[in-house]
Amino acid sequence: MSCDVIGIGNAIVDVLAQAEDSFLDEHGLTKGAMALINPVQADTLYQQMGAGVEVSGGSVANSCAGLASLGAKAAYIGKVSADQLGEVFAHDIRAAGVDFQTTPGPASGPATARCLILVTPDAQRTLNTYLGACVELGPDDIDSKAITDAQVTYLEGYLWDPPLAKEAMLKAANIAAKAGRKVALSLSDAFCVDRHRAEFVSLVDDHVDILFANETEILSLCEVESFDEAAKAIQGRVDVAVLTRSEKGSVVVTKDVAMAVPAAPVSKLVDTTGAGDLFAAGFLYGYTQSLGMKRSAEIGAIAAAEIISHFGARPEAKLSSLI
Amino acid sequence: MSCDVIGIGNAIVDVLAQAEDSFLDEHGLTKGAMALINPVQADTLYQQMGAGVEVSGGSVANSCAGLASLGAKAAYIGKVSADQLGEVFAHDIRAAGVDFQTTPGPASGPATARCLILVTPDAQRTLNTYLGACVELGPDDIDSKAITDAQVTYLEGYLWDPPLAKEAMLKAANIAAKAGRKVALSLSDAFCVDRHRAEFVSLVDDHVDILFANETEILSLCEVESFDEAAKAIQGRVDVAVLTRSEKGSVVVTKDVAMAVPAAPVSKLVDTTGAGDLFAAGFLYGYTQSLGMKRSAEIGAIAAAEIISHFGARPEAKLSSLI
Q1: Which 8-state DSSP code applies to residue A105?
Q2: Is residue A185 pLDDT above 60, yes or no?
Q3: Which of A303, B223, B250, B322 lies 20 to 30 Å from B201, alpha-carbon distance?
Q4: What is the pLDDT of residue A1?
Q5: What is the tens place of the pLDDT at every residue in A284-303?
Q6: Average pLDDT score over chain A
């Protein structure tokens, strides 16, 4: 097998800035959520937000960087533009040790996607994404051999927003299934689940082996009121559902058991951006190395704890040295 | 007076990455120094260095951001290109509260300057600068009224590298002198002083009222072997020389006295990028608010301590709340 995990996602450069809660209120932003914005909204919000730090992001791309930092072999498929931020994204993911071959879109097309991230004093992050070149990711960008050769194909729910990317996801999921590989999915965001619930339900039931979701996302998918109901509702529909609950740790739900695993200690909570992405990275690392469900969730918790102790969603420490 | 300090410098976006000492050795880089690199060298080094974080930089631009964060009125003159990184630079310095009006160079010309910064485990930073659009800063970019209206015009030694910028500096220094304003200069880098020593000496003796230098820079300017000799050699040649010595604090040299001021405590040393820039910001804040030499140097030390406790050379904390 040439690689442990191949990820497919929206290739995004994050622009992180500190903001007060009042800024979110004034701009009608929902704390903790991801909102899609058009280029005009992106320009307006950017002008009004504070000085930023640019760091490569993108949910599954962050997970792939985390997997490589843990010592796994990871590859990534995602669309940037042939512009400066596209070069930044491509450099960073390759420098992290991830194989990244997707052809960039033309510089004359939409710019590389940006996510304007406002980090409030409680370390919560609020995402505002201009999808840019991501809308050009399509089935032609899916390398069948790379999918066939990967133990796990990992998809992000956010890919449901750009229409062509949805086709790309389904193509990849079908190739993986045919080759007897596993398909993993992150639900990404409760509002994203709301926008596409029926399709998400079909995807999960028909294609997904490993499902990642946080509490609000799994409640939204299953349309239930409590975490316990959601854990019951998802049981048996996928091989394993990994449900994350921030400081309450995670619950790993398989056909037979629901196992709670505590969160890892965090020295200083700075910015929760990427917590879910790095949890998934840690879990998939353990999964592909056959370390067992419990240890996989523990590694997820350790990777998540590293990422929330600093600004940005790519690991600063070599994660393999932390586990 | 419409502003406390107007700064003129190379407008640069920093690309910060962690690196081992062996990486510096392999690439023949001099730790702690600033090296100028051409676009080809920049591409090669960028490809080989690790995943980065992009943060607006530029020595005097960092100082201006620090001044604004301290509550001073600051303006900045520097040249970016009309490209994505130029937009990032312009956004960040304006969002920091600094007045920035310089017309960007055309997108068809050289790209916005980048400084590839390698931060070694000892938190030392090694700078590799591609000047890009900075070479297009010239006398026409100097706004005479803005210089006349500012209490202090602050220049960076790095401006000696792009030839047109040197003319711009001299134009600004002459306007400031004619208006009875003060001229401040940072020597920037010992190798930069080496490259242009004779011209630096003339500039200091003919135009500079407030001089900032670290230990190696002042030794290079004065061509002496010890710090004490350098402090004596510079005494009386400028109104005040502010000599910084990292963890040993600073020495403020005026015509009559040489006063040592201790460094401020640092909780965690992460990245020394911007230490000198923020020290200058703190000192110039105190100077323009007439707080006296000792208090000005103390504020410089506090601002420098904040900047070296995190990645990047722009303050994360509101500096006015720290003093």
Answers
A1: B
A2: yes
A3: B250
A4: 57
A5: 999 999 999 999 999 999 99
A6: 95
Q: How far apart are CA A207 and CA A184, in angstroms?
A: 9
Nearest to B95 among A50, A96, A111 (CB): A50
A56-96, pLDDT tens digit by residue? 999 999 999 999 999 999 999 999 999 999 999 999 999 99
| Chain B from 289 to 318: CB within 8 A of any A CB | 311-312, 314, 316
Tell me if B53 and A312 make a contact (CB, 8 A cut-off): yes
Q: Is A123 on the interface with B (CB under 8 A)?
A: no
Q: Do the chains contact at B111 and A314, CB–CB below 8 Å?
A: no
| Predicted ipTM of the assembly | 0.90
- Chain mean position to CA B315: 14
Count of domains forming chain B: 1
Q: Does A167 touch chain B (CB under 8 A)?
A: no
CB atoms within 10 A of CB A255: 10
CATH number, domain of A165, equals 3.40.1190.20
Furthest C-alpha separation in chain B: 53
pLDDT, tens digit, 9 for 90 and up, residues B149-168: 999 999 999 998 888 999 99
Residue B49 near chain A (CB below 8 Å): yes
Please write the tens of the pLDDT for every residue from B63-111.
Answer: 999 999 999 999 999 999 999 999 999 999 999 999 999 999 999 999 9
Q: Quote the tokens at residue A101.
A: 């071959």
* A17 interfaces chain B, CB cutoff of 8 Å: yes
Whole domain around residue B18: which residue ranges? Answer: 3-321
